Amino acid sequence: LVLVHFGCGAFQEFKLEYAKLVGRVWFGIKPPPGHRQHDPRGPFQVNIADKSHPIMVGMNDFDTDDELYTCLEGDAPIEVIATARSKVDGQVHPMAFLYRYDQGRVFSCTLGHDVRALRIEAVGDLYRRGCAWSAGLPPVVENN
Question: Which of 3, 83, 110, 138 is most buried, taking the most CB atoms under 10 A from its CB?
Fold first, then answer.
């Protein structure tokens, strides 16, 4: 399963069940007091949190222009592979993470608000690699 950007907010009427499937979900239309859905749209740096993970091998930190989601909730054991620091709250938030559901693989990435955000080469590469990994394929193709 691959979640793109607001995929974390799908199925709000089944939020608890959906959270069990995907690991983290958007906390909804009415955020808890003192919280918001994301930083204002703008530039920020995405940091590779686990350079040894097969999805991230050879990738470096990169700049993007997007919404930095600060709105995920859940307590399932996720593996964070990319993060960014919010300019608003100063906290580090997951931008891409992995989750195992039974025998299934879930790749979730909150990047990709629009075409402009998805045109950033590193964002496209991250999604390509995450999709391959979630399908059980090698995320990086070796050049012969």
Answer: 110
Give the pair of three-digit tokens for residue 43: 């530039």
Strands 2-4 and 104-109, by their bridges, are parallel
Pairing of strands 42-48, 79-85: antiparallel
pTM of the model: 0.88
Structure tokens at 75: 């307590």
Q: What is the pLDDT of residues 63-116, one digit of tens each?
A: 999 999 888 888 899 999 999 999 988 999 999 999 998 899 999 999 999 999
> Under a CB-based contact definition with an 8 Å cutoff, are residues 32 and 89 in contact?
no
List the structure tokens of 102.
């039974």
Which residues, including other chains, have CB under 8 Å from residue 8's CB and lie 6 or more apart?
22, 24, 25, 26, 69, 71, 72, 108, 110
| Two structure tokens written together for 127 | 């999604």
The encoded tokens of residue 73 equal 């909730």
Q: Distance from CA of residue 129 to its chain's centroid?
A: 13
Which token pair is 109? Answer: 């990435």
Average per-residue pLDDT for the chain = 88
